[in-house]
Amino acid sequence: MTSTAVASDSGEDLAVVVDQASMTYRIRSSSEHLREDSGRWSRRFKRVTGSGWATVHALDSLSFVVTRGESVGVIGTNGSGKSTLMKLLTGKIRPTTGEVYATSTPVMLGVNAALVKDLSGRENIRLGCLAMGLSPQQTTEKFEMIVELSGLRESLHLPLKSYSSGMASRLQFAIATAVDPDILIIDEALNTGDAQFRSRTKKRLDEVREQAGCVFLVSHSLGTIRQMCTRVLWIEQGQLLADGDPDWVTDQYREYTEHQATGRRRSAEIAYQRTRMHLDSVQVDWVPGTRPTRAG
Ligand SMILES: Nc1ncnc2c1ncn2[C@@H]1O[C@H](COP(=O)(O)OP(=O)(O)OP(=O)(O)O)[C@@H](O)[C@H]1O
Fold first, then answer.
1. Cα–Cα distance between 65 and 99 in angstroms, integer?
2. Closest residue (by CA) to atom 5 of ligand 1?
3. Does ligand 1 have an atom closer than 6 angstroms to the CB of 53?
4. Does ligand 1 have an atom closer than 6 angstroms to the CB of 24?
5. How far away, in angstroms, is 236 Cα from ligand 1 center?
6. Could you report how far apart the first and last alpha carbons of the chain are, in Å?
7. Residue 32 pLDDT exceeds 80
8. What is the pTM of this model?
9. Span 120-150, pLDDT tens digits
10. Pocket lining: 233 vs ligand 1, CB cutoff 6 Å
11. From the alpha carbon of 86, which atom of ligand 1 is closest?
12. Ligand 1 in contact with 76 (CB < 6 A)?
């Protein structure tokens, strides 16, 4: 394993810096969650003796740097810590130790565009844009782009309650991307779309990246990750296991999860350790005056 020191003398290229960030949750130790977990996983759970509480080490000292123009896929098995990492990036929660920096406030898709069931698709677009802080004129300017991206032109007059969950997700996604965020976080939202929607989405994500932003995409769909991302982070058991080329990382991940699924624990462990050996550890080393804002 090699160590890379990151100096931010090219400060304007940075988008996100995660510096040895860890996150520990406190939960009631009688919870189902604790009783069900066993083996390797149980190392992440510790009962606080006599208190009725336990700690869950959701993330363990993660460090990585993302620059503008990157589209970063985030993969990992259930409960590995992906959503926790995204919440750290948006500043919704603060790391227990370590730090997370962002050059602008990351926008999490879905949070910023709540849909109203009794209103039509058209009304939801207008309301969603205004709720995200766009002016009435900006809303009018973005309207056509949103309709085009959602692929829901024929259904715009219908109330949202008549939409399928896939249609609603597409509309929500299209509205959320209207704000041209500098840093966009998408957590699973693309899994419902069909091939055409994915292709339009890729185009829109490319536009966001070209506007000097960056995109984080959390997904269990390796196809989506390969198609959309320029780099992939694999988070496993709260640790950063791989960070690199989408094809290579998703290949390792597929091998690991296939072994896991068929009960070949030894082979899974070998794949895990082999992947880990390729990870360059990152040490964040700021040039004075170039440190971006703390997320949250
Ligand atoms: N608010 C919370 N309180 C206690 N434990 C939590 C909380 N949120 C997450 N956890 C625990 O932290 C660990 C990481 O959870 P997280 O939701 O980040 O995983 P994930 O990779 O997003 O999972 P999934 O793929 O299933 O969505 C899990 O063990 C989870 O049970």
1. 12
2. 25
3. no
4. no
5. 12
6. 32
7. no
8. 0.81
9. 999 999 998 888 788 999 999 999 999 998 9
10. no
11. 18
12. yes
Cα gap 85→261, rounded to integer Å: 25
Nearest CA to ligand 1 atom 1: 25
Residue 20 near residue 88 (C-beta atoms within 8 A): no
Report yes or no on 75 lying in a domain.
yes
Ligand 1 contact, 286 CB (< 6 A): no
Are the C-beta atoms of 85 and 59 separated by less than 8 Å? Answer: yes
Quote the tokens at residue 181. 């965020």
Residue 6 has what pLDDT? 57
Q: Judge whether 167 lies within some domain.
A: no
ipTM of the complex model: 0.98
pLDDT of 294 over the 80 cut: no
Give the domain range for residue 226: 3-21+62-106+181-294
99: domain CATH number is: 3.40.50.300
CA distance 290 to 282: 18
pLDDT tier at 189, thresholds 50, 70, 90: low
Please report whether residue 35 resides in a domain.
no
**Mean pLDDT of all residues belonging to the chain:** 84
CA dihedral 218, 233, 24, 256 (to 10 degrees): 90
23: left (phi over 0), alpha (psi -120 to 50) or beta: beta
